[in-house]
Amino acid sequence: MEKRRRISLRAVVAAMALMLSLGEAASYDGGSSGLSPGYYSKTCSNLEKIVLREVTKKKNETVVTIPAVLRLFFHDCLVNGCDASVLIASHNNDAEKNSEDDDSLAGDGYDTVNRVKDAVERECPGVVSCADILALAARDVVNLAYGPYWPVELGRRDGLISKASDVKGKLPDPEMHVKELAAIFDKNGLSMRDMVALSGAHTVGFAHCSRFKKRLYNYNSTMRTDPSFNKYYAQQLKVACPPNVGPTIAVNMDPLSPVTFDNKYYNNLVNGLGLFTSDQVLYTDVASKKTVEEFNASQDQFFKAFVDSMIKLGRVDVKTGSAGEIRRDCTAFNH
Ligand code: HEM
Ligand SMILES: *[C@@H]1O[C@H](CO)[C@@H](O)[C@H](O)[C@H]1NC(C)=O
Ligand SMILES: *[C@@H]1O[C@H](CO)[C@@H](O)[C@H](O)[C@H]1NC(C)=O
Ligand SMILES: *[C@@H]1O[C@H](CO)[C@@H](O)[C@H](O)[C@H]1NC(C)=O
Fold first, then answer.
1. Which ligand has the nearest atom to the CA of 55?
2. 131 is in which domain, residue-wise?
3. Do both 150 and 217 map to the same domain?
4. Atom of ligand 3 nearest to the CA of 220
5. What gap in Å lies between CA 309 and CA 314, rounded to an integer?
6. Do 122 and 222 have their domain in common?
7. Do 35 and 162 reside in the same domain of the chain?
8. What residues bind Ca(2+) 2, as annotated (predicted)?
9. What is the pTM of this model?
10. For ligand 4, what atom is nearest to the CA of residue 267?
11. Contacts of 180-185 spanning 24+ positions with Cβ under 8 A
12. CA-CA distance, 155 to 7, in Å (whole number)?
């Protein structure tokens, strides 16, 4: 009896120490958000297997699934919180996804979530939110691209509002500088470090020429090309994106390893290979430069920070309890 009590006391102390260390690295208990990784363990115990299977299938068909899903999650969370509001289909061209800022979101992101939802509904009807499916799919695409893995907090409910007019001013623009970018992240409870880490998502995916053409041809009245560009990179980009380029032409955002989730994005920044103003200024501005140098030097530090920041991003304005609903179809409200 005496012995058993001593052991259990030691176990409690050990568990507390573990919680403290997890809390420091990344609070996987959901903090005060009301979310937790085990949320569906009783109601849909196969959920994560189903999501991974469907996401892998889709990624095997087209590798752009990776960036498309990751960006979709970011855009969803920054407008009315992580509540799948971005997934609602166009009605009178005034759904969130119809906004000018969202219209370049790749269709493969939406298609991935819809396919996963169909598969999940077959096994656990009416239980799992579209917002949680998107959060899980975002983790899975990062991991499928050889990036980090993390436990995804769950329990979000799907929002009841999706309006194009709600998007204005909420998403960062590629021509923004650090102050403006930081203000947008700060409004969502995300720090400068979170912003630098999350921007590392630009290690995968594409950008249309229109989003950075100004840096190549109309930088300012004295300089045609942004001098923070590496000269050779700017030359290559001018070939890919001539002045009269059509609206559909896009380039890899990470020219070194476009389909691998790694820290090459930061190697690019220190070498003047940042594609957008919003990328390159993270290195030219002293407010964020140190963090860029840290992630340039250590992929491990980048992965740790990215995981922490994705967990924080996943808590932005979430609806829990009786708020919102569990959508049957991710593209439409239930009523
Ligand atoms: C820091 C401010 C950010 C700005 C200004 C920004 C802006 C952009 C722009 C303009 C594009 C190109 C879209 C196109 O031409 O089709 C893009 C692509 C992308 N962004 Fe960001 N972004 C930011 C942060 C983030 C964050 C935090 C994430 C995710 C965690 C993210 C993930 C992506 C991905 C994966 C793509 C590639 C999409 C694809 O290939 O389909 N971005 N971003
Ligand atoms: C996806 O492709 C990989 C590699 O070719 C293969 O091993 C795996 O079984 C495929 N998975 C699915 C779900 O299609
Ligand atoms: C153009 O940009 C360069 C480099 O950033 C700067 O030194 C110069 O003052 C700018 N010119 C004008 C007219 O703003
Ligand atoms: C970036 O990282 C590389 C590789 O670790 C290192 O050699 C280089 O000095 C770093 N550059 C900067 C500017 O910190």
1. 2
2. 2-17+24-170
3. no
4. 1
5. 8
6. no
7. yes
8. 203, 254, 262
9. 0.92
10. 1
11. 181/278, 181/281, 182/287, 184/78
12. 34
Taking CA atoms only, the protein residue closest to ligand 3 atom 14 is: 220
* Residue among 218, 198, 220, 221 at smallest CA distance from 210: 218
If asked whether residues 92 and 47 sit together in one domain, one would say yes
CA 2, distance to chain mean position in Å, is 51
Query: How many A from CA of 285 to the centre of ligand 4?
Result: 17
Query: What CATH number is attached to the domain comprising 184?
Result: 1.10.420.10
**CATH number of the domain where residue 7 is located:** 1.10.520.10
Domain assignment present for 231? yes
221 Cβ below 6 A of ligand 3: yes
Residues 243, 293 share a domain: yes
Domain boundary among 136, 170, 204: 170
Looking at the 3D structure of the chain, how many domains does it have? 2
The reply to whether ligand 3 has any atom less than 6 angstroms from the CB of 227 is yes
329 within some domain: no
Provide the 3-class DSSP secondary structure of residue 1.
Answer: coil
Compute the distance between CA of residue 124 and CA of residue 18 in angstroms, rounded to an integer. Answer: 33
Among protein residues, the one with the nearest Cα to ligand 4's atom 12 is 293
- By the 10 Å C-beta count (0-12 exposed, 13-18 middle, 19+ buried), 114 is classed as middle
Report how far residue 29's alpha carbon sits from residue 16's, in angstroms, rounded to the nearest whole number.
13
pLDDT digits (tens, 9 = 90+) for 36-75: 999 999 999 999 999 999 999 999 999 999 999 999 999 9
In a domain, residue 319? The reply is no
Atom 3 (ligand 2) nearest CA: 60
User: What's the gap in Å between 55 CA and the centre of ligand 2?
Assistant: 10
Is there a catalytic annotation at residue 75?
A: yes
Last residue of a domain, one of 116, 149, 170: 170
User: What is the per-residue pLDDT across 217-276, written as a single tens digit (0 to 9) for each?
Assistant: 999 999 999 999 999 999 999 999 999 999 999 999 998 888 999 999 999 999 999 999
56 CA distance to ligand 2 centroid (A)? 7
Any atom of ligand 4 within 6 Å of the Cβ of 293: yes
Domain membership of residue 11 (yes or no) is: yes
Residue 29 Cβ contacting ligand 4 at under 6 Å: no
